[in-house]
Amino acid sequence: MSDASSQPALILVVEDDAAIQRVMRRALEQEGWLVQIAADEDEVAALDPSPTPALVVLDMNLPGTSGETVAGNLRALYGQRLPVLVVTADAAALARAKSAGSYSFLFKPFEVSQLVVAVRAGLAQNSRLTRDRG
Hints:
Layout: E1 10-14, H1 18-30, E2 34-38, H2 41-45, E3 55-59, E4 61-62, E5 65-66, H3 67-78, E6 84-88, H4 94-99, E7 104-107, H5 112-133
Parallel strand pairs: 1-2, 1-3, 3-6, 6-7
Antiparallel strand pairs: 4-5
Helix pairs in contact: 1-5
């Protein structure tokens, strides 16, 4: 990306439920963000590493692996400061979300407006971190 202000942010959604994928894609694209979807660890591994997502929305309960593993793999690829928003239906996943390094979390079911607010907060945090590094 050349100028972050001229390019829409890329949001990577890692979610195995197709209905939730569609809702997230629609909501995030309506905000002007680009959205990339992966349903599981294999799809995440198959992603082209460029461009770097500005933020990841991550379901903690993916088939075949944990959200923590996926978060670790994404951070190894894109950097430790990659903002991760965890979504989960499992209240016990809060500790796992924190261990995955998430900046915030949403419990399913959630309102679309909650998703948008949480993504905006993560993007703002990422923007501040990027400016501070520069």
